[in-house]
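Students often ask why we bother encoding 3D structure as a string. The short answer is that it lets us treat folding as translation between two languages. Here is a chain of 324 residues written in the first language.
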Amino acid sequence: MQKTNEVTVETTRFSVPQRVETRIIGMELTLRKLVLSALTMLGVGYIMVNLPVMILLGYFWSIIPISSQANIAAISGRILFIVASAISSGLGVAIVLSGVKFYEGNPTNGTAFLCVLFASFYLLCLGIGSTLLLPSGNLAGFLLLVAPILAMLGAATYMVPNSRFKLVGSISGIVGGALLAYALFNVRIFELVFDWGIPFTGPFMSLLTLEGIAVILGPVVAFIHSIVGANREEKPLAHASILLVALVYGIGMLAGSLILSMNLWDLVWKSPWTGPLSGLPEWVISTIVFWSASLFLIDLGGIILIITACLGFVFVAKEFSQFE
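And here it is in the second language, the structure alphabet:
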């Protein structure tokens, strides 16, 4: 009889932790599905948005006469913007692959590194193109060249399986992110090629202020990961930092893309009578409509990313409770 009671006590003692662990596993599976959905929508959104952007850049490039040095610089700058948009479409594919790998539980270091490289080359092409379109000696334009290079060097260094290299790589990324944020606040990149009198988003289709914050927080998260390492008790802190970046970026994507989409619709609505789009060919107006509609994919991705981050904080709270 005494032995039976001991077994009952042991079963009761371990039933609560087992229930908590089961809930955590179920929540983790839900998070994986949400992350896959968010990254798929964002990746497809980048691909769909950049198609009309490339078409529009090609049209406005074609109507510039080769009659002066300034016009040649303007044409060259727009060609680099077209190359940048093509690279951004490649970034969209890499983002989707990252979501699939994360959902399957496979390591995402390789695809994350690929995303950083695509994003850095994208920004580098935009930086070179902006330098050709901006007045000579513009500091922000110069920083648009330096920041992506620092980001690429930081990402490559961070991939080395050594804690010191990871620290150096993350610090390089933080410096690059800070320089990039300063450049983005001082150069409205898309306004250099689309002078339509509306506020454009940052280069990643996010609200400019939040995008500047996100490019700094990203390498800060990498710095935290390099310090935490494999310490199990510190992992929830690293997870919380990632979720903070996702929340900031998701809000920026939702707000920025929605505002830009509404502004584009307003220009299209006024185009038969007035505004910068007045007199443009009908197919150009249709391309702008397609651009505006494609931005709703990024809006949806931003919404899912916000939901994922909020649910993720609940998951992190559960992780912290395991150490109590």
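Translate back mentally: Residues 27-321 form one domain. Keep this in mind for the problem set.
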